[in-house]
Amino acid sequence: MPELPEVETVRDGLERSVVGAVVERVEVYRDYSVRRHTGGPRDFEGQLVGRRLEAAVRRGKYLWLPLAGGDEALVGHLGMSGQLLVRTAPTRTVSPHLRVRLSLRDPSGAAIELDFVDQRTFGHLSVAELVPTADGAPGGAGTEAPLVPVPVEHIARDLLDPVLAVGTSGREALVERVRRRRTGIKRALLDQTVVSGIGNIYADEALWRSRMHFARSTAAMTRPAVRMVLDAAHEVMTQALAQGGTSFDALYVNVNGASGYFDRSLDAYGRTGQPCRRCGTLIVRDEFMNRSSFRCPVCQRTPRPPR
DNA sequence: CTTCTGCCCTGGGAGC
DNA sequence: TGCTCCCAGGGCAGAA
What we know:
Elements: H1 4-17, E1 22-28, H2 40-48, E2 57-59, E3 62-67, E4 72-77, E5 82-87, E6 98-105, E7 111-118, E8 124-132, E9 147-149, H3 169-180, H4 185-190, H5 200-209, H6 223-246, H7 261-265, E10 284-288, E11 291-295
Antiparallel strand pairs: 1-6, 2-3, 3-4, 4-8, 5-7, 6-7, 8-9, 10-11
The protein binds a DNA duplex through residues 1, 3, 32, 36, 61, 77-81, 97, 118-123, 181-183, 187, 190-192, 199-200, 289-292.
């Protein structure tokens, strides 16, 4: 499932393949896939036709393509199973999970199809207004413009954002924000209003690398401990991005959670019953927020319950 | 304001 | 073989 590194791979692909192209036709095959769009799917189609895609921007797991001729953007979230596939030649087979198709014309006159394919339909597209960022800094990766779409306004910056770079005041402010929370460290890492882009997989990987239990109280954590887990999250996502980038094909912007990075490099996530790569103890699975959490029971000790 | 729960959705795979 | 049920989980509404 796409988290920050996968979404950044998609953003990079879109930047190279569809930026500069003009939307000629929009087909919505599944209304549910166009959500949080004022006006509904028909209005979505009308808003896009004739507009040129000006950039490809990402914050956390949100993507957006600012549209020429107005402060609006095509906004996308891939959810669990979403893919944005770029094709420059007609295809014989159409995915049964094709939800939205944008037919584009690039500056050279060539036809491009941008397909939103999403099996589980947790992802969605919309057109939304762009508004200034609260801090005046660029809205996300891939742009210098200090703008974000309205649905992204409440989404915090992610760890690859220069505003949150290690050693900056932004990073230290994030450390303090985490310490002010009254919750467990994994809940804080997953809260997209605190820091964005971290999902269940990379949260578990960051906690394993930091030797921390998911339920450790944020309020009781020292600054160095919070720095450590944030650095670990940053590191694991950077490494994943480096691997995801190598398999990228410019003509096929792909997101596939089952490929590449996932199979080879995970230390905790999904490794129930397999030996911890540090100490050999078998990884366990815990119930957490109605989903799963994977950890080494020795490296990541259960914290004392608060009194 | 903060924290937390339940729900949205689909199809692959396990279990019988 | 065929049926049923569980599971994956990001983000949001609404409750506490």
